[in-house]
Amino acid sequence: MSERTWLMFTEEGTNAVEKMMLELKEDLKSNPLPIVREKLRQKMKKISETFGEIYDTDVRYNIAYRLARAASSVHEIEIDSIYWDL
Questions:
Q1: Residue 4 CB: number of other CB atoms within 10 A?
Q2: How much is the CA Rg of the chain, to the nearest whole Å?
Q3: 28: nearest Cα among 86, 84, 85
Q4: What is the pLDDT of residues 1-19, one digit of tens each?
Q5: What is the pLDDT at residue 57?
Q6: What pLDDT score does 33 carry?
Q7: How far apart are the C-alpha atoms of 72 and 49, rounded to whole Å?
Q8: What are the pLDDT digits (tens) for 33-55?
Q9: According to the model, what pLDDT value does residue 31 have?
Q10: Which H or E run includes 21?
């Protein structure tokens, strides 16, 4: 699966999620996980104002899975997708 495949309905939605994920991956490098989790929720809420499909089960799964992988790599601990509570 391509990093750009977020299962959003439009290219604009895909771009919004891609931007969010890049920002969150940077946040992982300098913030504790609970802060990044809160930022994720805030960013998803903002994106949902324009792209409601961000709350689709498959979209949330992809976000949580990829963010868990990134967090595990940055923090050198095993983080499960469930942590993000999406």
A1: 11
A2: 12
A3: 84
A4: 445 578 899 999 999 999 9
A5: 92
A6: 96
A7: 30
A8: 999 999 999 999 999 999 999 99
A9: 96
A10: helix 11-30
Sole residue written with tokens 């300098």 = 30
Structure token digits, residue 44: 């998803």
Angle subtended by helix axes 11-30 and 33-48, to nearest 10:
160
- What tokens were used for 72? 């595990």
CA nearest 84: which of 29, 53, 47, 42? 42
How many helices (H) does the chain have, and how many strands (E)? 3, 0
**Is the four-CA dihedral 48, 70, 6, 13 of positive or negative sign?**
positive
- Give the position of tokens 């499909």: 53
What letter represents residue 17's amino acid?
Answer: V
